[in-house]
Design a protein that fits this description.
Length: 403
């Protein structure tokens, strides 16, 4: 699909054909597009042009332009001149801080992929630039915008055989497959339980991927002054996915269904990783000493007995277990509840708790399916130990969705 401009209105091929039959001219000269879209690109925060427009004077040398070229740096410290331009400044979003927001009355234009590629090659041959910096507003939808940008780069690489510098900004909201075509593949995203820097809506953030709800997801760390802007941007961008804010209680319900630990409840300074079922998180070959190393490594190797073990349970009787409630077996207190609540997914009341381990305890080996009781307001209610997690986790990890 090719787009054209007339009086700040975007037209499709079909509309162009209809308009041409009516004698209406709605095409735009490439240099006019270049003027508009290099001017619009100077507000992109990733790198900057001179930002000022100053012509040479008699007796002097040099001049500057406010837009058109920007500079980046190679790994060896060399300064590289790039053609800095937008694919389009038409945008479906109305971000208050953006000059290209849909409600702003500015000149609009859109390049075809061929035009971007031809401009880059011609400027490169004249030694004006060493490469391309391509960004864009969002036209129609993020996927369509990325397809246009991919088309331009494909023409540069495979038709013109241009292998110089190319910097392309991924469009937020575009599908992972399209972003992957631009070189930002899934391996470039934070892997499970890792963190990395990124740009989100042109805001510098840290993104982690711990999936504390039991499903694949990201946690975003952002400076205070950008938090409100980013919050509303995420809500607006996620409307098509029915995104909605949730509270801390909903988060706690989701992490409980996935049997994920909460510090202060299921983890504390009196609990070792093996007792919490987290022995996998301890490096087995770590040479450095640390507090409790001998006990922890002994518990992992089964040479030191565990004082307790974490179990998951679901209520048989109609009652809800809460943190601090006592766990009973055979009329004796054997443990304490650390987390408990209602599982909306399962339609059951579930919980986590620690069972004390003694030399003759049946819980040393047998646990699953064992009936226990929970003391709720001075009355015992029946429950059953079940497998953790309560629901299947859905993580993205090294190409495998469910982990």
């Amino acid at each position: 699909m090719v787009y054209y401009l007339r009086t700040n209105v975007l037209y499709s091929d079909l509309e162009v054909r209809k308009a041409t039959m009516q004698g209406v001219v709605i095409t735009m000269d490439v240099m006019e597009k270049l003027r508009i879209l290099t001017g619009a690109a100077k507000y992109d925060v990733a790198c900057t042009s001179s930002g000022s427009d100053r012509r040479g004077v008699a007796g002097g040398m040099g001049s500057t332009i406010a837009a058109g070229c920007c500079h980046s740096f190679a790994s060896d410290g060399r300064c590289i001149s790039l053609l800095k331009v937008l694919m389009t400044n038409f945008c479906i979003y109305d971000c208050k801080y953006c000059i290209n927001r849909s409600s702003n009355d500015v000149e609009r234009a859109v390049f075809t992929p061929e035009e971007i590629a031809d401009l880059t090659i011609n400027f490169y041959k004249r030694n004006y630039i060493e490469g391309l910096f391509l960004s864009s507003a969002v036209i129609k939808n993020p996927d369509h915008t990325m397809e246009l940008m991919i088309g331009a780069i494909a023409i540069l690489r495979y038709k013109h055989n241009f292998w110089g510098y190319v910097h392309v900004k991924a469009i937020p909201g575009a599908s992972p497959d399209l972003i992957e075509k631009m070189g930002l593949n899934k391996k470039s995203q934070p892997e499970y339980f890792s963190i990395k820097r990124a740009d989100l809506k042109n805001i510098n953030v840290w993104i982690s991927r711990t999936g504390y709800t039991g499903e694949d997801g990201f946690e975003i760390l952002v400076k205070n002054q950008f938090s409100q802007i980013l919050w509303y941007e995420i809500l607006e961008s996620g409307e098509e996915f029915d995104i909605a804010p949730i509270g801390l209680g909903a988060r706690d319900t989701l992490r409980l269904e996935a049997a994920l630990h909460l510090y202060g409840n299921d983890l504390d300074e009196e609990t070792t990783p093996p007792e919490a079922g987290l022995g996998w998180s301890v490096a087995k070959n770590k040479a450095e000493e640390y507090n409790g190393k001998e006990i922890i490594m002994g518990q992992i190797e089964d040479t030191v007995p565990k004082a307790k073990k974490l179990v998951g349970f679901e209520m048989i009787d109609n009652a809800i277990a809460r943190q601090g409630y006592e766990i009973y077996y055979d009329d004796k207190q054997v443990g304490v509840v650390t987390s408990g609540g209602v599982s909306p997914t399962l339609g059951k009341n579930i919980g986590l708790g620690y069972i004390k381990l003694t030399k003759d305890s049946i819980f040393l080996n047998k646990t699953l399916g064992t009936n226990i009781q929970i003391m709720v307001r001075n009355k015992l209610y029946n429950a059953k130990i079940v497998k953790r997690p309560f629901i299947e986790k859905k993580y993205y990890q090294k190409g495998v969705e469910n982990k």
